[in-house]
Fold:
Amino acid sequence: MNWFGENRWKNAVLYTTIAVNLMLFALIAVRHYWTPRVEVPSMARPEAASHRSEYLEQYEGSSVHGGWKVDHYRRIEVITDEEGHVLKERPTSEMTHIRYWIGQ
Structure:
């Protein structure tokens, strides 16, 4: 059987298989000698503490108009620190009204 002569496809598959196996062997052999650094030194410092802001709906009350019960909610902005402690609650001017039919 002549591997280096007439059939080009056999040669291509053979050379590709050999190259892939050599690359895999090199990766396996080198992984024990080279490890990436876990920590990266940084000279930057945060200028301000990071705060998280989210909006919540706060119940304001309800009223009855005709056959409808209307619940009123005000949107408030809640600002928390990195540990989840509430720093500030600020009500906004946005209101949400939800109607329920209660009948006559």
In short: Strands lie at 52-65, 68-80, 86-101. DSSP finds one helix and three strands in the chain.
